[in-house]
Write a structure and sequence with these properties.
Blueprint (H helix, E strand, L loop, with lengths): L10 H11 L7 E3 L5 E4 L2 H6 L11 H10 L3 E2 L6 E4 L11 H12 L1 H17 L1
Antiparallel strand pairs: 1-2, 2-4, 3-4
C-alpha cells in the first residue's frame, strides 16, 4: 500500500517524510525503532547529498532550528540525532496535516500567505 502525502503542506514535511521513508537512504536517515521519530545516522552524508539543503545552511544548529520551527523535537537521551513529533508516524503521512496546521497557526495568516507565495514561486523555478 502506497502512503500518499497530502497536498498543500509545507515542502519540508514531504521532503523529511519521503527521505525517512526511503529505504535506500537508511544508512543516512531512517525511522527509529518506535516508528514515530527519525534518526540522522550520517550527518556528513546528509550534508554531502544536500537532502535538506533547501531548508538550512549546512550548520547543525540551523538544521535543529528549522526542524524545531516545523514542530519536530529533538529526542534527548537517545545518544543519536533523533527527532520526532506525535504526528510524524511511519505509514501515516496524513498526520502531517496536523503538523502543518500548527505551523500555520503559529505563523499567522499574513505570514502564511507570503510563505505559500514563496513556495509556489520556488516550485516554478525548479
Amino acid at each position: 500500500m502506497v502512503n500518499k502525502i497530502p497536498k498543500g503542506l509545507f515542502r519540508i514535511f514531504s521532503v523529511v517524510y519521503e527521505s525517512v521513508d526511503d529505504p535506500s537512504l537508511d544508512s543516512i536517515i531512517s525511522w527509529s525503532q518506535s516508528n514515530n521519530s527519525f534518526v540522522i545516522v550520517n550527518l556528513e552524508e546528509l550534508n554531502h547529498r544536500k537532502i535538506f539543503a533547501r531548508f538550512y545552511s549546512r550548520h547543525l544548529p540551523d538544521l535543529f532550528s528549522v526542524l524545531e520551527y516545523y514542530g519536530f523535537e529533538r529526542i534527548k537521551g537517545a545518544g543519536e540525532l533523533e527527532f520526532g513529533n506525535v504526528n510524524f508516524v511511519r505509514g501515516r503521512p496524513e498526520l502531517l496535516e496536523r503538523m502543518h496546521s500548527r505551523v500555520v497557526a503559529k505563523m499567522g495568516n499574513a505570514a502564511y500567505q507570503r510563505k505559500q507565495a514563496a513556495d509556489a514561486f520556488q516550485r516554478l523555478s525548479i
